[in-house]
Each structure stands twice: as C-alpha cells, then as structure tokens.
Amino acid sequence: MAQAVIAKITEGLKRAIGEDCGLKARLKLNFGADGIIFIDARGRPNKISNDDREADCTLTMSLDTFQKIVSGEIDGASAFMQGKVKVAGDMSIAMKVGPLLKRS
Asked: Are the C-beta atoms of residues 11 and 3 closer than 8 Å to each other?
C-alpha cells in the first residue's frame, strides 16, 4: 500500500516540478520503511526517482506527516519544531522545500 502511495507522490512531483524546480541540489525525502523519493536538481532536466542515493539534504518523516504538509494541514516549519520532520545536511535546502511540495 505505502509503495503505491510513494509511486503516486513521485509521479506527482515529476509533473509538478517539470524540468527545473530551482533547488540546484540533491534532496532525499526519507519515509523510513515506506520508501524514498530522491530529487537530483543539479542539472536540467531534474531527475526524480525512488533510489536511495547520497543527498545534500535529507528530510526524514512519516508518510502521514508528508501528506499533511502537502495538504496544508500542518506547516513544514511547525512539523520540524515538533520533531515530526528531521533534517540532515544543508538546512538552507530544507527551507526551500515547502514551496516545492505545494506544487505536488
């Protein structure tokens, strides 16, 4: 079930981002046992996959938290402050992700 949700989110991000999301970095969305979405935005076109690769910034959260952030039910910064989102790597990249997720 979770794999189907991850696949749907991945496809939605591909459509929403298009060729260039503007991050100019590698971002990993880590949903633990549910899966991973990897965005390589260093070149054009951006590449989005479910590969577990090294990233400049990794956001770790539950799939439920991700869906609530995307739907606007909770704010990404609030989720971070509550410990629902963990950030590893470049925090400046993490701060650019909110508008990106709103596109999906």
From this structure: no
